[in-house]
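Translate sequence into structure tokens.
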Amino acid sequence: MANIHKKIEQWALRSNLRFSPAKYHVMHFVQPHGQEHTELPNIPGFADLTTEQKAKILPERLSILGVIYDSRMSWIPHIIEVRS
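Result follows.
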């Protein structure tokens, strides 16, 4: 992931764009009975974040274009949202 991010940063620099690591969202997908991951990738700016900012970057659920994902890919949060 860090390699991909480095390429995107190079493109952004050429395009005069800036990214704010505090606004990122990272989700580690694990098997249903696997262990949760709470590590952030080695991306510049992540080491300086506060605990609150890190919790925001590593959410329990993540909504992408209206689909709610959870790290175990159970789809339960999405089904609950759709049914309500």
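Note: The first strand starts at residue 61 and ends at 64.
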